[in-house]
Amino acid sequence: MPIISVGRASTDIPWPPPTAPDANEEARLARLQNEAEAKKVSEAIDRAITSEKEQRKKQAGVKLLLLGQAESGKSTVLKNFYLRFSPKTFQAEAELWRPIIHLNLIRSVNFILDLLSSSSERPMSPIPDSDVIRRIRFSLRPLKEVEDSLTKRISGSVLLPVIADSELGDMGRYHPEKASEVQIRSGTGWKNFMRLRRQANNISPERAAKEEDESNRRILRACADDIATLWSDGEVQATLTDRAISLKHQPGFFLDDIKRITEENYIPTSKDILRARVRTIGPEEHRIPMDSSRLQIAATENQGKQWIIYDVGGSRSQRVKWAQFFDDVTAIIFLAPISAFNQVLAEDISVNRLADSFKLWKMICSSKLLVTVDLILFLNKMDILDSHLKSGIQFNRYVPNYKDKPNDSEHVAKYLLDVFTALHNQCTPKKRKVHTHLTTAVDTTSTAVVITQIQELLLVKTLASTNIL
Length: 469
Known about the structure:
By secondary structure, this protein is of the alpha/beta class. Helix content is 48%, strand content 9%. It has helices spanning 25-60, 74-85, 87-92, 98-117, 131-139, 142-155, 165-168, 190-199, 204-232, 234-242, 258-261, 270-275, 353-366, 382-390, 395-398, 409-427, 444-465; strands spanning 62-67, 183-185, 279-281, 284-289, 306-311, 331-337, 374-380, 434-438. It has a six-stranded mixed β-sheet with strand order 4-5-1-6-7-8, sandwiched between helices. Strands 2-3 form a two-stranded parallel sheet.
């Protein structure tokens, strides 16, 4: 059997092979004409592709990238954009958030119950187990089943992909001082899935799901008084304080609203939706119609734009995916949760969260791919920072360079603002202005003001790019 050489000898074969000789002059002219026509078609296709790319770029809208470590407030800022520019859609989806909010509440309750159950493992600081607590622990047992039911319903474990433990990586770790979170993979479209379940009442599986949902709500409503008693118990509160567990400052906290959110006709408010917590694993693209009233003076091609916002994961395992979203980005909103100055990363307890935010910020500022991109810095969670400092936590214990400056939110925020600005000025390849804001993302009023300022900033940039300014 002959052996086909794929080694060095193959380089002697000319490629492309020479054109076969023309039979006559007429054939030669026909060939040249065909080649010319083929070239015209090819060039027309190239022009069409280029034109389409340019058109898509013009119509694409403002592309924003939300960056920051996990639990920095990216999803909450995204919800604020929806509330600001698409309020009807935001309100129309309110009922879809109810199972999420109920699950947030139940997971906080079950966290406390698990803490009570584990008290025997910590003989040095046991949690008092009074008759009242024992009764409440027994009466709230059904919430475990409700938690499982809601988790399966939200993640769509039958019809939608389920996240394997191996995919969660550092995000799936158990945190002894934090209530667990519901996690779904990006692209699963959990809202559409929930909406379909609500609408298809005549189909047996969906009807069963609806009945299960009503059953879950009845159980939760029946447990409301005992949940309130558990949460207000003095010994439980003292134990949480002793173990430095602050549920109030964790995402998805609703234990102060038990009666309201367990009512039969409960519809989540805008503030409830902003506080609700569901973690999406992986990047997601969101398209929000932009208010074009401010764009009427612009060229026709710039009207009717939309916000294109990418919400990407902030945990260490997901940061490697950030760079793929740098192309053609209009602006980056970087969120630094400055209230986390006394916390460590879930992925690495040797790393302070504030120090990690500094490192991420330097990485963004020094990127040569982003030299023309507007950087918008949110020093977020000002409300929690203020609460921490007022409770007596000393900022200079975790940031020695702060020295003996006043231990209040105004001075600490000013200090951090100066540090982040200085880091940018040191690292940026090109001189530019950083647009900084002190934010509390769950405060819709103040955040709306900030979003309006961002809109004006990007409007000016859009007009400048069209030579109108």
